[in-house]
Specification:
The chain is an alpha/beta fold. The protein has helices at residues 13-30, 50-59, 77-82, 129-138, 154-164, 210-217, and strands at 2-8, 10-11, 35-39, 63-65, 86-87, 101-106, 109-117, 144-150, 170-174, 184-185, 191-193, 198-201, 232-242, 247-256. α1 (13-30) runs parallel beside α2. The protein binds fe (ii) ion (FE2). Residues 41, 67-69, 150, 175 line the site of fe (ii) ion.
Length: 257
Amino acid sequence: MIYHILAVGDVVGEQGVKHLERHLRSFKKLRDIHFTVVNGENASNVGIMPDQVEQLYSAGADVVTLGNHTFGKQQIVSRLEDDPYLLRPANYTGRAPGRGYGIFDCGHIQIGVMNLIGRCGLDFNADNPFTTADRLLKGEKALFTLVDFHAEATSEKLAMGYYLDGRVSAVWGTHTHVPTADEQIFPKGTGYISDLGMTGPIRSVLGIRPEQSIEGFLGGLPGRYQTADGACKMQGVIFDLDSSTGLCVGAERVDIR
Ligand code: FE2
């Protein structure tokens, strides 16, 4: 059987959350999606609040992944400890609350989801994401394993894809908010894309008001991030996974406006 897995790019601000609430359920029905992973670390622009995690679940997310802004909102800390469906990067050091890997039921099968953070230009204090993936894959494994690699450098993301090729079902990049046109299936059967894109305002700099971003680059004080106004998009990738192999047979970019 072929399972359709939807990976949704970083949800930005209340506008992004609302767009997801408006479109995700109907899209899942339309495309017969069995399991959905949503990156939510920008739901409050910098971080996510507990009630927004609930909003993402009611919108249709099965698992919510995070990234460099995991602890942007301190209110999320206890939720990270209590909620197995909310993942933060697994290669955070041992002192960080929460978990970065989980195995979840999906009908008759199980799906493992791993969240990792990159170190190139992003998080220099994190443990090595490559060896962290090795360690986690040595433990209990599900039929399918999905990896959200929250990273800045396309080199680090591609290297991770090739490193895990044939050992996991799909690897996708998040964090840069701009979708890449390199969705593909690697030689040993792992589905891959360097970045999913984002869920939030179309006319924006990565979801933020353009004027505010420009002010920052001019050397001024950009102030607290404000989500841009206007129409939104929901970007991601559908990975078609084959239950007879645990590997990927199709990858399609989607952009719902
Ligand atoms: Fe990020």
